[in-house]
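Researcher: Here's my situation. A collaborator sent me these components and asked whether they could plausibly form a single complex. I don't have experimental data yet, so a predicted model of the whole assembly would be a useful starting point for our discussion.
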Amino acid sequence: MRELLRAARREEPSDLLLKGGRFANVFTMEYETADIAVKDGIIVGIGEGYEAAEVVDCSGGTIVPGFIDGHMHVESTFMTPRNLAATIVPLGTTTIMPDPHEIANTCGMEGIRFMYAESQGLPLDIYYGAPSCVPASNFETPREMLTAKNIRELFDEGICTHLGEMMNYPDVYLGNRDVWSKLEAAKGKIITGHAPQLEGADLIAYILGGPSCDHECESIENALEKLRLGMWLMVRQGATARNLTALAPLIRENEFLTTRAMAVSDDISPDFIRQRGHMNGCIRELIAEGVSPLAALRMTTFSPAEYFQLFDRGAIAPGRIADIVLLDTLESCKAKKVWKRGNLVAENGKLVLPIEGADSRRFPGNKNSVPMPLLQEIEVRPPKNAIKAPRINVIGTIRGQVITKRLEMTPTVKDGLITADPDRDIAKLVVVEKNQGTGRTAVGFVHNYGMKRGAIASSIAHDAHNYTCIGADDTSIKKALDTLYAMGGGIVLTDGDLVLAKLELPVGGLMSTLPFDELCAETAKLAEARKILNPDNAEAFMQLSFLSLSVIPELKLTDQGYCDISAGGAQPLFVED
Amino acid sequence: MRELLRAARREEPSDLLLKGGRFANVFTMEYETADIAVKDGIIVGIGEGYEAAEVVDCSGGTIVPGFIDGHMHVESTFMTPRNLAATIVPLGTTTIMPDPHEIANTCGMEGIRFMYAESQGLPLDIYYGAPSCVPASNFETPREMLTAKNIRELFDEGICTHLGEMMNYPDVYLGNRDVWSKLEAAKGKIITGHAPQLEGADLIAYILGGPSCDHECESIENALEKLRLGMWLMVRQGATARNLTALAPLIRENEFLTTRAMAVSDDISPDFIRQRGHMNGCIRELIAEGVSPLAALRMTTFSPAEYFQLFDRGAIAPGRIADIVLLDTLESCKAKKVWKRGNLVAENGKLVLPIEGADSRRFPGNKNSVPMPLLQEIEVRPPKNAIKAPRINVIGTIRGQVITKRLEMTPTVKDGLITADPDRDIAKLVVVEKNQGTGRTAVGFVHNYGMKRGAIASSIAHDAHNYTCIGADDTSIKKALDTLYAMGGGIVLTDGDLVLAKLELPVGGLMSTLPFDELCAETAKLAEARKILNPDNAEAFMQLSFLSLSVIPELKLTDQGYCDISAGGAQPLFVED
């Protein structure tokens, strides 16, 4: 410590000196021109007269704190923490706060521990939220239920620092004992929220439970109500769920609100990252919406740091860790250099050195053996002895949305079997339970999804992430499921017995071990193959991944069968009169 | 908890409903019109449609959070915590963060424990800082030195929540081991600062030690430098040290800075409270300086709550404790009603019910026996065998300041004794060590203090608070000191053998047991008597109380003799050639 003090008082040289740039002061919301001295990874000097072993000329550039993503899911990026770090650190992100609830569903506590272990030693600080809602509902089958006791363990072992998004908002405001025991387990810690469309008295009761932020605001009215009630606003800009344009006017009109607002990414895909970046993309987009550059910066640095009480970062100030980005300008938000704890880790969009070590650890996979369904087991026959033509429940998808409609339709019957029918835009949906290895299989039908032929199988199916397949014929479905099983998870597109494209996601059935560039090449192939099978639905992968999420209305299919949470739960395939 | 939820969801009546008023929203910085429901001391509803056992019509009024004083010393008010609560709660203050370092000097750990015990069960939350600088320097004699171990004890026992003002800034930035061990003991806790005129590299090094706020800013330049470096600004408005007018323009020009700024009172006297109130007075004065009412409010509610991480208060919001003030308007800031944790505790400037219990506990006093000096022991004789006329060091006071000048003067000699001389405005100053009961006595002289006759003795003499007396003749001094000793501390004014006025401060030699009104009547008598003895110096009591504070330049007198910190320490009475 004495050395830091001597460096601060210019009696000794520092390690690093950023010279001649202007820096963004998030306390006073202004640019300052000053040199910045760093020693032992800590900012020890701001001003003039400092010397250092290494001097970096920053003239003409803008120096900002490393970006912080206050809410995201590593699994959505298809990358392991290591590969994700290699991708987003060069974009200026130095801290993320992920909720590992995807892998928690497929691999339980083992999965969370794996994520934590893989997050050590990276040039990116990863602070995990303890998943609060595994399973998402009783209609879904995770590897294991995460209880309050598990959550306490995750805190006690230092694996998690806060409570992950509390999605089960009705049980919070209704006072459900199990949910409240999880809230109790997180007492004194930050409890993050998830409260779509919640308002009025129910929202107030939800807040009493402890959730202090929300990333599910779609309208200014809802965002403002939550801000007024003391919640922090997370303006989400994900690959699919994008609220930035809707909410930016709120910030633009009153930038004081940046004191309680931040930008987060929630679910972002490799392609999305490639096209628009990470938090640097949020800054650009906020500025494009008319938010001032410093306010946009605050929403991606100081505000998330304050919300998560990470008082050691989020600003260029003495005593804070030297997570620093040298940009050309905030407006273009291109990271010329990135320092993590004072070490130069990226330059011009590339890591300076590869991240040490390798993804060598045994990663948690699926149960060794899952009895996959035979062809006959995915066939659907009309009820025997039926007096009149049967009618079935069908999931009606809506483009651009994850909610669905429950439709009643007369099925297409061929050779005594109820089948998919591309002409009527009816596809067959099959879900095979994998997390517990039972192979329990449910079959349903989907309207308006756009399958012309073949099948798409995926092990990404929120939140339980079972083997899920949608297709136009049983042969394609069977081939896709078997291929998926053989890969240990991923995404497969088949046309009859032909595999058109596949992406292996062996890490928990959710993540690839490929680095970013190779991963993007693979996902591009998936997109090409999708155009053959389902030319009109650019959201096909995303929609498929939400067809099992039981907590979103109306009709969904889990391994336990149809479920409509808005109609009280389980639903039959055949409509009963 | 279920009951709170049911009340929040309007399924059950609440305890209290504030109906028809507008309230100040410190998150969005706007007034809102809504009813506010309270149950079990918690705000559970904001909006319409609530019912409650007790409904209060607030129409026409403004509802605000209870005020918070982020830095003050209870001892300066001459009141015990109980009497102080009875005085300031009716003014709208519901939380204070005092540093008990005065009683820590006179009574050690016992004194701090006493203050904590006396602070329980009040309608005022009192969170103490652990005194970080007892003694203020090695030239002062406290009851006991407070070490890092003591500080750790105070935290472990829950007596203190943060580290009190770290006044020894040179030893922070120089890396002194003892001081740093105290900073280490406070790791992870808020460390409050005290850094007058500190700037540049030394200020940065001080910040590296952990202090994250400062209440010693006198200029906008210094305040802005500290804000830019990430410190929180405490705009102090004390009875003597008043920085509000100087700093208000900074806030007025950029109210975004209220996110990092608060108003505090530091040292306030009974008369000051009577004349202008407490935090309500700060709000009025800030508004008078052109700060917007909501910004002024934020500086006395939400900002201190945020700084001290008291996330359960400082705002009218669900889940926060119902510390609520009903004002006529923010501009006049008159508290019509005050609720503490949902209980009505004050109305129209008066407590609703007396505070339960009484000041019945044994309070820490002085050592039973202090050998007080004989008359001969306060006499000063010129050195024997002196070749030429002696010259002495004299403390030169400056009106309106606590700093002094070191003067060299030729003393007045009468009957072979060096004496005070009202004609030349030279008074004699005597300090008698009381905290350890040694009775060690030091004598010096003061110029420009204005004593025409008689003596003023006081046991308030920062920071060690020894028996201190300034006078125009030895008889008055002796009488004043003996009376002071007999009272166990306080303030005494004598004229020869006549006691003109006295105030007993038996609690640690610092605090009275009198309630506010009686106390003010007594202090008024002191002021009248002062006018007889020292008609021109309205600051006489305040100046006397700082004549022993060794850490402020130039010349001071402690029980160990003259001290000039700017000249390296101890100084002799007689100037050596």
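Model: Some features of this prediction you could bring to your collaborator: The CA atoms of residues 138 and 550 of chain A lie 9 Å apart. Chain A touches chain B through 49 residues (CB under 8 Å).
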